[in-house]
Amino acid sequence: GESVGLHLPTLSVQEGDNSIINCAYSNSASDYFIWYKQESGKGPQFIIDIRSNMDKRQGQRVTVLLNKTVKHLSLQIAATQPGDSAVYFCAENLEGNSKLTFGKGITLSVRP
Amino acid sequence: GAGVSQTPSNKVTEKGKYVELRCDPISGHTALYWYRQSLGQGPEFLIYFQGTGAADDSGLPNDRFFAVRPEGSVSTLKIQRTERGDSAVYLCASSFGAAGELFFGEGSRLTVL
């Protein structure tokens, strides 16, 4: 298998259940946040983003929640499917700053 | 293809050698980024190009690392006198403008023996 998922925390969920992946970000000045999904042997893939003037944003089967008070970001995946198995990263950015800062990834494993 | 293309996908080299990694971004994307991903870690920013110029190279770890984008499209990351600690997956991403969504390539896995 690929090395990206090694030594990362793992969340194991039953197919069809909802998943919640949490992330603590580091910079209280960050104002843009993104969740990425990384499958084995591939680059990160954009899932959903949220700006700091919002506390919730919904996509297709995914919801991102932002709590700026405690610098916490979460990704909720509804009706988790085997294809959701991957490593998930949160990333933060400052408005006008070119660089994203990625957090430590979490491996999502979906049990059939 | 329509995505970001990186070559080679795998590169094994010996300590002290010179390496070039190439990135072909999505056509029309003006912004190009290089990130490095070590084992079990998230990607770390190296350098950002807007057009032909390096707008932010603050993530390059030392002067052995250099990147160019001479015509504002293809970029090459160059690593001189490679060290074992340079072993990682080097990811390239592009976006339509600096604030656009980043599209990542599949990466070039560099192994320095």
Account of the 3D structure:
- The complex is a heterodimer of chains A (112) and B (113).
- With 112 residues, chain A is mainly beta.
- Chain A has strands at 10-14, 19-24, 32-38, 45-51, 56-58, 62-67, 72-77, 86-93, 101-102, 106-111.
- In chain A, strands 1, 3, 4, 8, 9 and 10 form a six-stranded mixed sheet that branches. A four-stranded antiparallel sheet of chain A has the order 2-7-6-5, with no helix packed on it.
- By secondary structure, chain B is mostly beta strands.
- Chain B is built from no helices and eleven strands.
- The termini of chain B are far apart.
- Classes of the chains: A mainly beta (112), B mainly beta (113).
- At the A-B interface, strand 4 and strand 9 of A face strand 4, strand 5, strand 9 and strand 10 of B.
* Category from helices, strands and their pairing of chain A: mainly beta
Through-space gap between termini of chain A: 19 Å
Shape of chain A: globular
Radius of gyration of chain A, in angstroms, nearest whole number = 14 Å
Low-confidence stretches of chain B: none
What is the helix fraction of residues of chain A, given as a range? under 10%
Q: State the end-to-end distance of chain B.
A: 32 Å
Q: Label the structural class of chain B.
A: mainly beta
DSSP helical segment count of chain A? 0
